[in-house]
Amino acid sequence: MKIRLLLLSLFCVAAYSGKAQDVAVKTNLVDDALLDVNLGVEVGVAPKWTVELPVSFNAWNMSHGRRWKHWLAQPAVRYWFCDRFAGHFVGAQLHGGQYNIGGFDGKWNLFGTDARKLKDNRYQGWFIGAGVNYGYAWILNRHWNIEAEIGLGYSFTRFDQFKCATCGRKINSKKPHNYVGPTKAAVNIVYLF
Fold first, then answer.
1. 32 in helix, strand or coil?
2. Which residue of 104, 170, 177, 188 pairs with 147 in a disulfide if CB–CB is 3.0 to 4.6 A?
3. How far apart are CA 14 and CA 17, in angstroms?
């Protein structure tokens, strides 16, 4: 419901302004490569400021009992150093969502997160956090851009742990985990209205 209200607010701001290149829709090629359904909407709110709401969703069933299901929303505010939707920008983002992941042969322990535990366990829970972003947008023509963005930040998650990826035997309940590190990676194809 909150996401719907935020999207409605973004569209109302866009409808009010009515100028060219005040609204953009985008898809993240990194999410696309991970088979996530994703869409982002960005609205200009001042000459050098925009707000955006990218969302992604993955509910596919995978082979061999693996789980990789989640939804994610990352509302953000961006400051553009030149014009909106062109050149360098910095931003601040919030993020939150839910996940259900397990059955993968993770081979790394990075930023306090041990992916090696994903092979024999399934984790189901929610997360919230915040971060800062940097990016650059290349203008292709009047309506199309390519945009690259990286973000660093903090996430707090609370999860239930299950013994295997497909079974339901819970071995830990409502366990907290803190994460500091990359929170966003995007290469967006952007259409400007």
1. helix
2. 188
3. 5
Q: 34-64 pLDDT, tens per residue?
A: 889 999 999 999 999 999 999 999 987 777 7
Structure tokens at 182: 């990359």
3-state SS assignment for residue 65: helix
Backbone φ, ψ for residue 112 (5° rounding): 80, 10
Q: Which helix (H) or strand (E) holds 28?
A: strand 23-28
For 121, other C-beta atoms within 10 Å of its C-beta total 17
Beta bridge partners of 177: 157
Q: Are 180 and 131 in contact (CB under 8 A)?
A: no
Alpha helical stretches, state H, the chain: 2-17, 29-33
> Which residues, including other chains, have CB under 8 Å from residue 191's CB and lie 6 or more apart?
24, 25, 26, 143, 144
91 with 135: CB under 8 angstroms? yes
Q: How many helices (H) and strands (E) does the chain have?
A: 2, 11
**Adjacent-strand bridge partners of 159:** 125, 175
What is d(CA 34, CA 31) in angstroms, rounded to the nearest whole number? 5
Q: What is the mean pLDDT of the chain?
A: 87
